[in-house]
Amino acid sequence: MRNGIAGAATAMFLVGTLAGVSGLVADYPVYGGQAVRYLIAAIILLAVTRALGLRFVRLTGREWLCLAGLTLFGLVIFNVAVVESTRHSGPALVGTVLGTVPLALALAGGRPAPRLLLGAGVVVAGATLATGLGSGSVTGLLWALVALVGEVSFSMLAIPLLPKLGAIRVSAYSTALAVPMLTLTALVQDGAAALRVPTLPEALGFGYLATVVTVVAFFLWYSSLPKLGPGLAGLFAGLIPVGAIVTGAVLGVAAPSGYDLLGAGLVIAGILVGLTSQRRKAPVPAGTSVGEGRVSESA
């Protein structure tokens, strides 16, 4: 339980650092840059998979659909939606909508305990305050809602796969599948200008996004998800804006305001409330156990 809490908290905090580091790759073609990011991550994860001796696991048709849906909605469409929502309405609106992820995961996970719902609500309020109440066009709002669906899919569609594949293989397979999807999107959007040789700062930025925000964060999240369940794990999604605030302060990009600090405090309070709920275990498919997911890592 403690390992799951630490892993989920660290994963979402690291995802939040993306905002501060993204400035290094801001001038690189967006979708081509995402393809490069996931290509680097896939190479690392597949190398780790091979080094650990994890064999390829044959998937059923339903499992392939889950993996394809996880990749398409949770990685590709999510990134496209965030970019398009930001273009139409700025980052505040999509950040505010994504701040509802804890509540969405709590509801998607089944019948949540009242304290879990209360905690999720407090986390949503804190994340919204820390992100800034967004405003913008209807188009921007619709793209933000698509991003929310993608973020929920990233967790919910992984749950049936984790007992059989484990965190490393789910991360490796999904990032590898995302590369051709994002490359095609980049070519449609930007044509021949979709890819170019990155500058040194861009290369460092992509290296961080691929290794820390993708490889490490994905592994920690998918390792924690079966232990906590989507509702409890989802509480830690509220740490994304907290990670952004801390990174901005450390890099000297932006000093946190009073509202930022209040929002961060509400996120922490909501997590603590949610952790007192009685729903401690994640639902797993019939005939499997959470332990199978951990065993599969060394299969």
Secondary structure layout:
Layout: H1 2-16, H2 18-21, H3 30-51, H4 61-89, H5 91-98, H6 101-108, H7 114-131, H8 138-156, H9 162-190, H10 200-234, H11 239-251, H12 258-275, H13 290-296
Could you explain how this protein is built, in words?
With 299 residues, this protein is mostly helical. Helix content is 75%, strand content 0%. The protein is built from 13 helices and no strands. The protein is globular and about 45 Å long.
Considering the chains and any ligands shown, give keywords for the structure.
299 residues, mainly alpha, 13 helices, 75% helix, disordered C terminus
Q: Which ranges are low-confidence, i.e. pLDDT below 50, for 5 or more consecutive residues?
A: 278-299
Helix content: over 70%
The largest β sheet comes out as: none
- Please state roughly what percent of the residues sit in beta strands, choosing from under 5%, 5-15%, 15-25%, 25-35%, 35-45% or over 45%: under 5%
Radius of gyration: 18 Å
Shape: globular
Estimated structural class: mainly alpha
The multimeric state of the shown protein is single chain
Order of helices and strands: HHHHHHHHHHHHH
